Amino acid sequence: MYLPWLRSYNLLILDEIDSTNSEAVRLAKTGIAGNFVILASSQTMGRGRHGKHWYSEPGNLYVSLLLDKNIIVGKQPQLSFVTALAVYETIEYLAKKSKVKLDIKLKWPNDVLINSGKVAGILLESINLGQKNYLIIGLGINIKTNPQNIDQLSTNLTTEGGIAGENLIGVLNIFMHHFEQHFLDWQHQGFIKVRLNWLKRAYKLKELITIDDGSTRISGIFQDIDVTGAMMVRDNYGLVHTLSVGEVFFNR
Ligand code: BTN
User: Fold this and answer.
1) Is the C-beta atom of 36 inside 6 A of ligand 1?
2) Looking at per-residue confidence, does 74 or 221 come out higher?
C-alpha cells in the first residue's frame, strides 16, 4: 500500500500499549526530532477527555500523531477541528465505498457521531520542552466494536455498515490523506475555512443544548463557534455565553 504521508511522518506500529498518547508523550520528552504516527492494535489504559477511560479493544483504530511543528499554544485547539473534519471525510469516503448513506455529524468540541452515536473521539495534548513545543493528537475510531453501557450513545463502523473490507492501515491512510490536506489549508489560510467547514457538519447547531463547563451548567441555543473554536450559546434572556471547555448534553 502506498502511504505518501510517510514522507513527513515516522510510523510506529505497536501491538498492545498502555496508550498511544502516553507513548507519544514519552517520545516527546526525549526531545526527539520529526513527526510520528503511533498506531496500536489495543490499549490497556486508553485515555479520553476529562480524564475518562477510552474503550480500547482490538479491532478499532487507536492512533496518535506527534507533531514536531512548534504550533503556537493558543492555536492548538483549532487542530482538533482540523482532525474532526478529516475523520468526517474518512467516514464519508468509507461509507461511499460501502454504498451506504450515513448521517455523520461533528459534536463540539471534537466528537464524531453517526446517527447520534459516538464513533470517534479526539484527545489533544501538548508538551513544552523550553524551546521545543510538541502537539499530540490522539484519535480513536470505533471500527469493529464500541463500549456498551456508558452514559453516551455510541456506535461503530461495522454495525453501521460503513467499512467495506478496509483494514486499519487502510483507514489510517485515508485519514492521513484528509488530515494533511486540512492541515496545509489551516497553515496557509488559518482557522476561517476550517471553522466554516466544521459548522456545516455540526451536530445540533441552532438547537437547544445544555453545556457544563465543570462549574456552571448553561442551557440555550447553540449559536456558533468563535474564532478560537469556543462554543457560543444564547440563553433564554438573550445573553450569549462563550465556553472554551465543557461537556455538552443534548436535550432530546
Ligand atoms: C474522547 O473523546 O474522550 C477522546 C478519546 C481519544 C482516544 C484516543 S485512542 C488513541 C489515543 N490514545 C489514547 O489514550 N487516547 C487517544
Assistant:
1) no
2) 221
How far does residue 43's CA lie from ligand 1's centre (Å)?
A: 10
| C-beta of 64 in contact with ligand 1 (< 6 A) | yes
- Residue bearing cell 466528537: 111
Is the CB–ligand 1 distance for residue 43 below 6 Å? yes
State phi, psi for 207 to the nearest 5 degrees: -115, 170
pLDDT in tens, 50-59: 899 999 999 9
Question: What is the sign of the dihedral through the CA atoms of 85, 91, 94 and 99?
Answer: negative
